[in-house]
Amino acid sequence: MDAEQQLQAIKQAKVLMVGAGGIGCELLKTLALSSFQDIHIIDMDTIEVSNLNRQFLFRQSHVGQSKAKVARDAVLRFKPHINITAHHANVKDPEFNVDFYKQFNIVLSGLDNLDARRHVNRLCLAADIPLVESGTTGFLGQVTVHMKGKTECYECQPKPTPKTYPVCTITSTPSKDQFEGGGGGVSLPLARNFSLPLARNLLTGTISLSCLVHPCLSFSHLCTPVLGCFILFVHCIVWAKDLLFSKLFGDKDQENDLNVCSNNATSSSEHAEDVFKHILDEDIEQYGRRIYDHVFGYNIEVALANEEAWKNRNRPKPTYSSDILPDKLIQQIGNLDNGATDDPSSVSAMGSLGLKNPRDIWNLEENTRIFLEALKLFFGKREKEIGNLTFDKDDQLAVEFVTAAANIRAASFGIPLHSLFEAKGIAGNIVHAVATTNAIIAGLIVIEAIKVLLCDTNSYRMTYCLQHPSRKMLLMPVEPFEPNKSCYVCSETPLSLQVNTHRSTLRDFVEKIVKGKLRMDFPLIMHGSALLYEVGDDLEEDMAANYAANLHKVLSELPSPVTSGTVLTVEDLQQELSCNINIKHREEFDEENEPDGMLLFGWTQAPPMNMDNSLPV
Amino acid sequence: MNRMKSLHQEGRKEQKRYLGDDQWRKARNLRALLGVLAQTGREGVLEQRRWLRLRMDGEELTEQETALYDRQIRVWGVDAQRRLSKSHILVSGMKGTAVEFCKNIVLAGIGSLTLMDDRMVTEEALSANFLIPPDENMFSERSLAELCCDSLREFNPMVRVSVEKGDLSTFDGDFYDKFDVVVVSCCSLRTKKLINEKCRKRSKRVAFYTVDCRDSCGEIFVDLQNYTYSQKKLVDTIEQQLQYPSFEEAVAVPWRALPRKVAKLYFAMRVIERFEQTEERNPGETSVADLPSVLKLRKELCETQSLNESHIPDGLLERLLAGRREFPPVCAIIGGILGQEVIKAISGKGDPLKNFFFFDAFDGKGIIEDISNPDTGS
């Protein structure tokens, strides 16, 4: 390629970058050095200490400030004469609509979540602007080029649904089974060089994606013994975080099946529904022990009563607090008034118990202490928050509680215990990240971006950055795939839906299909020219009431009845996505295999894995 | 009261200056340990036990380090992080690729980084260098290395970054003892060989790397001498041993003894390198006008080595000769790969590459080539 022509194309280009994190910092720097003159950058995040090891445009003194703005200022220091516009905002904000996108020649993405990626993909398609996507995890990364009509769009390949932990099984028993059978569609191009960290990412939901998923290896390869233990521990964390923690400290009204551990109703009065309720004037430690004995003791006993379930498994051991810590012992340790600080956000059970190293693995006794102490601290120092807490990986006390609870449960089931550091990584879906991979990926993005600007269509590549060489290659370019002709996002092929139109309501359709599968945030549903439903802030009152009423109606009884042969149009105006759905009535659905009570065709089922595509920024 | 406090702080600063960082940290730990041992009662005993357990496995990372390096410790582990923080690295030649590399290893948290490049700032030197704010320094009297040093220090206050003046090839062997890793960039074939030999003669291993980018191509050479590491295979860990040839030995391996599909870039780089040496040019001081002489040299070399000239395409040589300006995306990629390799070698984690790496933005491939004597492996 002609160097002069290339430079001209670069200088005239207007570029939109989404994400100013790990990849974003590197990308902005490389774009500026490569003579790009006009760059817009969107990021809603602010800077945190754990970003500083790789997001090199940021300093300690910037912690708390806008990533987009600090990145702009840092790059302008060494390239003062270019234009960088920083937007400290959510990429999903309505101001970033199709018209906004249309002013750019190319969009470069270094986002950290599937939801935002889908959104950007849909807007790029609507605006017909080429998109270069990227992601990294540890030493792995990839760059892909998406151009409407020429290469596949970001959603042409099914994306795993986020965080679909099979909670039902987690409630009762951690088991390897569902992992060994369930993941038929999940595979890796790195088959022979498969590494444990990779598996961890995969299992903790931090790995991507379209690109690391290739149909050449079955998931059963991953189930080595070491991994098996790890998977089981992940279950314990999920149980501790999503069930126990939210039951105790989160929204009380939330559905939560922690109590329903057995099918039979053997519950005595002591183990009735309100076992988790803190009785007025009850000693907090007493309360903690009651919870402890219920979830680690009684619930396990109940589970054990179902002999059938334990035929081919190791039987778990019920654990009671008095066996681990004889009465009164913890009284002398956890002294609430002894806290060095009054700041409720900095209380720590490790601190009051004198445990220092987050990488130590606590024994059962230490875990029990932490469990009771953390509970005590929540009720003693942070009582106001109880009922509204959601798990946050930066909430030290929450992480301590979840670690201890997961470990106690793991001990019951004979699963190896893990340190707070490791548990935090799993519970917070923390993405492993290093500077080098981000730098490499950013370089590759710019190379693809230049090809796109020169309309050098034939040389577009998607590139994998590998940890172990494959055919001597650490950086492996692959020709991009053609668009998937039946992709509901980038093609106009209609979808079809089998549904019992006399039984399913409009709400079922909205929740399970429009939001659950098509991932629309602000849907609008039309039957011909009749509006059946829409979401928005600016709805007239009577319209809103109308829609609310429609939600409760079954499809065939809507004002404009939906029956076999009806074509519904579903749109999301913010995503600029519209698709048609052919409705076909069907009487019966199999409860076990078709739990939605409806079946969507033309939409590809994502692997039933707990991956969420959250690549690091 | 305040005065007491400030005196106390002064004293500590003085102590720190006198002892040096490492010593001071040890002293501080010892002081803390004494404090802990003085505690009595059940609490005290518990605390002592915890302290001793903590100190058993050597130097502990500080809380600050753990917070800063959280995401990467999750990649390579706390042992590797500890080894990184004790490593000393020398980089000579501060062009775009070396700058990228320095950024990467400073962020990773190495112990110290020493920079060498006495050249003054020119517009060309700035084109791929994000460490130097252009205007204010255009006319300053400071060298490239000094200017880069200022910025790198800001990246990570826990890494000591300094400058060494002079010509590296004239330094005594002792000088190299201070380092675990030496990286040279933009220097002549002769200098590469010379420095590599000096590194090899030291009693401890000094890992040696060269890195060069021309146009949209880049090359890395690695010499880890004898390198043993544990390789992880799914569940087992096996001991792996690698024998590296020196740069001189590697480029002396007859071309016909190499595997059939060696990257064309390997041969092309050797031709250009040889051309610069015979013409006594500085590295990179070439233009398209040199193409006829370079093609002549290619013919001679290919004849002596019995290699078909088609292995070194005209177009590739032309690109390498013409591309005087650095191509920043390639600097980022090569600097990233090199950073990763150096981190692997220091931490002893992961398979290091042996012994050349090539990247060409033209085809997008990043290839590892083992250029060593097929009989001995080195």
UniProtKB/TrEMBL annotation, chain A:
Keywords assigned: ATP-binding, Metal-binding, Nucleotide-binding, Ubl conjugation pathway, Zinc
Name the chain's protein: SUMO-activating enzyme subunit
One Gene Ontology cellular component term attached to this UniProt record is: SUMO activating enzyme complex
**Binding residues for Zn(2+):** 153, 156, 487, 490
Domain (Ubiquitin-activating enzyme SCCH) spans 384-424
| Gene Ontology molecular function terms on file | ATP binding; metal ion binding; SUMO activating enzyme activity
Q: Which family does it belong to?
A: Belongs to the ubiquitin-activating E1 family.
Which residues are recorded as binding ATP? 19-24, 43, 51-54, 67, 112-117
Q: Residue limits of the THIF-type NAD/FAD binding fold domain?
A: 4-488
UniProtKB/TrEMBL annotation, chain B:
Task: Return the Pfam families for the record.
Answer: ThiF (PF00899)
Q: GO: which molecular function terms?
A: SUMO activating enzyme activity
Q: Keyword Nucleus: yes or no? A: yes
Q: Where is the THIF-type NAD/FAD binding fold domain?
A: 69-365
Keyword terms of this UniProt record: Acetylation, Nucleus, Ubl conjugation pathway
The cross-references to InterPro entries, in alphabetical order and at most eight, read: ThiF/MoeB/HesA, ThiF_NAD_FAD-bd, Ubiquitin-activating_enz
> Does the keyword Nucleus belong to this entry?
yes
Main localization of the protein? nucleus
The entry assigns this protein to a family as follows: Belongs to the ubiquitin-activating E1 family.
- The name of this protein is Ubiquitin-like 1-activating enzyme E1A
Q: Which organism is it from?
A: Tetracentron sinense
